[in-house]
Specification:
Layout (H helix, E strand, L loop, with lengths): L1 E2 L10 H7 L1 H4 L10 H20 L7 E4 L2 H13 L6 E5 L4 H12 L3 E5 L9 H7 L4 E5 L13 H10 L4 E4 L11 H4 L3 E5 L10 E5 L25 H16 L1 H22 L3 E3 L10 E6 L4 H10 L2 E2 L15 H5 L4 H5 L1 E5 L6 H19 L5 H4 L2
Parallel strand pairs: 1-11, 3-4, 3-5, 5-6, 6-7
Antiparallel strand pairs: 2-8, 7-8, 9-10, 10-12
């Protein structure tokens, strides 16, 4: 099987699994216990917290451990909103549902939610952000890299605008972490969401970076773990695995970026050259190194996925988190795509295990599958297939 759906999830790294196993078998103590078992678990958590922090050049005390990107995003939004009732929150129209759904709920509770538009590449204009800031704005949340089309936003411009008016800035960096260098101190980011299973770590664990000086209200209450910001017994094995995944991402970052860019450009150029009437979506340059998003005119994306799966290629049309809900991509809609362009979309996302041989095989299969589907397409005459 050729796996090209790494934006949905990645294969757990062998070194990550190896580090996790002792905390599933021998070191099973509760980290809140004061005996030896508990102390071993607590020590492992704090080591992982350092590994996570160093990936983004943060202080370990600024890392709040969560169950993943969704909880991190929810915690950032609700944590700030609770301190500023009925204030304005600004986000973009192409955010992940883990941002959009909480925003919809806050809107019903009386908050003023502004959804910034994007251009045809999926970019938010910093000037439009600036025009929508008011003295009542409590938070701006704009994703770092889009999970569907891979466009990377001008985060430093957004942060500069927010700093001038003393407004906290949050970014969902779930897709960007491990794909591009991120230095929270250099960028001046206030809050940042990370997820482990996007960087070859275990599922069900993530983190929210909260810059010193930023105060949020807790969303989960109980025994007071994580400095009272997220109660509940810690998932030690997963935290250890997450820490190791972050360490490996930091060590191998530049090498991984180089390899993924090489593979991305190779398969992207090959598809464009060898398959007619195909459009590359997202920004041509400011994009994640592992993301390729195409529209194959006259082809239904779901039919394409099924055919590719039959040929042992795993891909997707968009976000895996909303795959159970059959709806048109809100990202492509916001970018101005027609219904036909949206339904013909395909997302290929690369990982550290992919190679050139897989790229060649994928293109050959894709050529044949697209040709087959176009032969029975209702748009056959329109595009002269």
């Amino acid at each position: 099987m050729i796996y090209l759906d790494n934006a949905a999830s990645t294969k757990i790294h062998n070194d990550v699994l190896e580090d996790m196993m002792p905390y599933l078998k021998e070191h099973y103590g509760n980290p809140s216990s004061i005996h030896r078992y508990g102390r071993l678990a607590r020590k492992a958590i704090e080591k992982a917290r350092k590994q996570i922090a160093y990936l983004i050049n943060a202080d370990p005390s600024e890392i709040l451990l969560t169950s993943g990107g969704t909880e991190s995003n929810n915690t950032a939004l609700y944590g700030i909103a609770k301190k500023n009732p009925r204030s304005r929150i600004i986000t973009s129209s192409i955010e992940h549902d883990a941002i959009l759904e909480p925003c919809k709920k806050l809107e019903k509770e009386g908050f003023d939610i502004i959804y910034l538009p994007v251009n045809k590449y999926g970019l938010v204009d910093p000037l439009i952000l600036n025009d929508n800031l008011t003295e009542n704005t409590s938070l701006v949340s704009i994703m770092f890299g889009n999970n569907e089309v891979g466009t990377v936003e001008p985060i430093s411009d957004f942060v500069k605008i927010c700093k001038e008016q003393n407004i906290p800035f949050h970014t969902d960096a779930v897709q960007a972490i491990g794909k591009i260098p991120i230095d929270v101190k250099e960028l001046g980011i206030d809050l940042l969401s990370i997820s482990s299973h996007k960087i070859n770590g275990p599922k069900g664990i993530g983190a929210l970076y909260i810059r010193k000086g930023i105060s949020i209200d807790p969303v989960i209450l109980g025994g007071g773990q994580e400095n009272g910001l997220r109660s509940g017994t810690e998932n030690v094995a997963n935290i250890v695995g997450f820490g190791k995944a972050c360490e490996l991402s930091r060590i191998n970052l530049l090498e991984n970026i180089s390899r993924m860019k090489e593979l991305r450009d190779y398969i992207s150029n090959k598809i464009i050259q060898e398959i007619p009437k195909v459009i590359l979506n997202g920004h041509p340059e400011s994009r994640l190194p592992n993301n390729i998003h195409f529209t194959f005119l006259g082809v239904n994306g779901e039919d394409l996925l099924i055919k590719l799966d039959e040929h042992e290629i795993a891909a997707s049309t968009g976000s895996a988190c909303s795959v159970q809900i059959q709806k048109a991509s809100h990202v492509l809609q916001a970018m101005g795509f027609s219904h036909e362009q949206i339904t013909g979309s395909l997302r290929l996302t690369l990982g550290i295990s992919n190679n050139l041989e897989e790229m060649d095989k994928t293109v050959e299969i894709l050529k044949n599958v697209v040709k087959e589907l176009r032969s029975v397409s209702p748009f056959k005459e329109k595009y002269s297939f």
